[in-house]
Design goal:
By secondary structure, the protein is α/β, with parallel strands linked by helices. Helix content is 24%, strand content 26%.
C-alpha cells in the first residue's frame, strides 16, 4: 500500500500522486483517511487559478502554511482513523476516529493537538462538515442576529445552507434565502428557510418584501451579489461578507442611498475571532460549539455525490461545470 495525494497541478488539472506511507516520529500519529470533503467555494478558486498568487494558504492551519501556487496540496476536511503512534503519544489514540484540517491524502502525520476526536454519535460523513459548520458559526458570531430581526442569505452552497440551518434555530422575523439552482433552493427550505428565491427571477419576487433587512449574508461567491446585498439592507443594517472572491473584483454602487444609510459592511473569515470577542472566545471554544451543533444540524443529508479519490478529477470537473447538480461532494479512500 502507498499513500495517495491529490495535487492541483495547474488550472483545471488534478493529479493523484503516490508515495511511501510516512512513519510517525515520537510525537506524531499516522492517520489513514476514510473520507475527505471538497470545499467547493475555496477549492474551485484553486482549481480555476483564481487565487492571489503567493498568498498563504491558511496561516492558522499547520498543514496549510505554504503560499498558494501550482503544484500544491490543498483541502482542509479529512476524517480518518489513527493506525500508528509515535513512542511519546499517550495511550488511547491508536484506533481512534479523528478529524483533521488537512489536504486530500490517504495517509498523513499529525500531532494529537491538531486532531479532533470524533464521538461515536457522529458518522464519518457528518464529521467532515466540521470546518464548514465552524465557518457558519463564525458568520453568526460576526452578524449577531437579534430576536425578531429580518435576515437574508445570498447563496445556498454548502456554507450558505449550513448558515441558514443555524439561523433557523433563532426566533427571527424573516429568514429568506437566494440561490440560482432549484436543487439548492429545495434544500434551503428543508434547512429552515421560510422562502428561497432565484435572484435572477424578478417576476417571482415581491420587491417590497425583499428589502429593509436587518442583516444580510453574502455567501454566493459572486462579486455582483454584494451590490444586491447592500441594496437589500435597511438603515443601520449589517452586511456580512463571507464570500472569498479571489482575484475577482466587486463593483459597488455606493453613491446613492448607501451614503446616508449607515450600513456596515463586515468581512468575516473563520481563521480569526472578531476583535471584540477575543477576550472570552478562542478558536478552540468556537470549534467545540460547532462540533456540538453537528448533531443538531445533521449535515450528511446535504451530501449529493461520493467519488473514490482516484476519480477526484471527475469530482472537480462536476463541481466546476455542473454546480446546479451538486452541493457537497465527498472523496472516499476505502
Amino acid at each position: 500500500m502507498r499513500r495517495r495525494s491529490l495535487w492541483f497541478i495547474g488550472p483545471g488539472v488534478i493529479e493523484i500522486r503516490e508515495s511511501a506511507i510516512p512513519i510517525p516520529d515520537e510525537d506524531r500519529v499516522l492517520v489513514q483517511t476514510l473520507a475527505s470533503a471538497i470545499s467547493a467555494g475555496t477549492e474551485l478558486l484553486v482549481y480555476r487559478n483564481e487565487f492571489p498568487a503567493g498568498m498563504q494558504a491558511d496561516e492558522s492551519l499547520p498543514a496549510l502554511q505554504s503560499p498558494l501556487g501550482y503544484p500544491m496540496l490543498y483541502g482542509y476536511a479529512c476524517m480518518g482513523r489513527v493506525i500508528k503512534c509515535g513512542g511519546r503519544i499517550p495511550p488511547g489514540w491508536a484506533g481512534r476516529r479523528v478529524f483533521a484540517f488537512h489536504p486530500h491524502e490517504s495517509h498523513f502525520l499529525a500531532r494529537p493537538a491538531d486532531l479532533f476526536p470524533v464521538p461515536d454519535s457522529l458518522s464519518d460523513e457528518e464529521a467532515l462538515f466540521l470546518p464548514n459548520l465552524e465557518t457558519a458559526v463564525n458568520f453568526l458570531m460576526d452578524g449577531q442576529p437579534l430576536i425578531g430581526e429580518d435576515v437574508a442569505v445570498l447563496g445556498q452552497g454548502i456554507v450558505g445552507i449550513l448558515t441558514t440551518a443555524l439561523l433557523s434555530l433563532f426566533p427571527l422575523g424573516r429568514l429568506i434565502t437566494f440561490d440560482l439552482y432549484p436543487q439548492r433552493r429545495k434544500m434551503s427550505l428543508e434547512a429552515g428557510s421560510q422562502s428561497c428565491f432565484n435572484p435572477l427571477d424578478d417576476k417571482s419576487q415581491n420587491e417590497r418584501l425583499l428589502r429593509d433587512f436587518d442583516l444580510v449574508y453574502e455567501l454566493s461567491g459572486n462579486p455582483a451579489a454584494l451590490d444586491r446585498a447592500v441594496a437589500m439592507t435597511g438603515y443601520g443594517g449589517r452586511v456580512i461578507i463571507g464570500s472569498w472572491y479571489g482575484t475577482k473584483r466587486a463593483s459597488l454602487d455606493l453613491g446613492g442611498a448607501f451614503h446616508r444609510s449607515r450600513i456596515r459592511l463586515i468581512s468575516s473569515q473563520v481563521s480569526t475571532i472578531a476583535a471584540e470577542l477575543r477576550g472570552r472566545w478562542s478558536v478552540g471554544r468556537r470549534l467545540a460549539v460547532a462540533a456540538d451543533l453537528l448533531s443538531r444540524v445533521r449535515p450528511a443529508r446535504f451530501v449529493t455525490h461520493r467519488f473514490p479519490v482516484e476519480k477526484a478529477a471527475e469530482a472537480f470537473a462536476l463541481l466546476d461545470r455542473h454546480p446546479q447538480d451538486c452541493l457537497q461532494v465527498i472523496l472516499r479512500y476505502e
